[in-house]
Amino acid sequence: MADQWMIRGPVYANCNCDYSCPCQFQAPSTHGFCQAVIGGSLEEGRFNDVRLDGLKWVTLITWPGEIAEGNGKQQIIVDESATPDQREALLKILRGESTAPGSTIFNVMNSLVTDEKETLFAPVEVDVDIDERQGKINVPGLVESTGSPIPNPFTGDPHAVSIAIENGMEYQTANIGRGTSKAKAGIEIELADSYGQFCVYHMNQDGLIRN
Asked: Residue 18 pLDDT more than 90?
């Protein structure tokens, strides 16, 4: 029988694009290349009979040109509290395995990665408040990222903007903010005041589970 899995939980991502991230609109990226720090926390999850509730993960990923051109590099960090069975199961999901081709962001991204760095198991902190557009990723000594709302330049109030994608493979609706990140793992990334995304990943082996 084919593997059956499901995950649901908040995700915060920071990439090097401008606040609008043209990639979300099938347009060329802001700078012609991509660097991103992504962190998620599973409120609920399973892979066959293995429960994944409470696990946290981080992905560092870069492409030298446009994402569709491939040749990406990726490194996954999984919270060290995961058991061996949980580690194996979660990595299959994050690497786009046991998934219908092209149906999830993990499967598509991994199809465009040619350099998979060593997976790390370390203390991982991921806190995401989607409504408030707040995010925090911390892997001591390796990754630090903070997400926050975009300020209105006239009033200083948070600028509340969202993106909805009806037929997407990552999310249905994402709240948009800004982020600043620094990673010094197998992949080094440094981002300042660039695109921040706050959403729920709710998907299974066949793609997004839509509300």
From this structure: yes
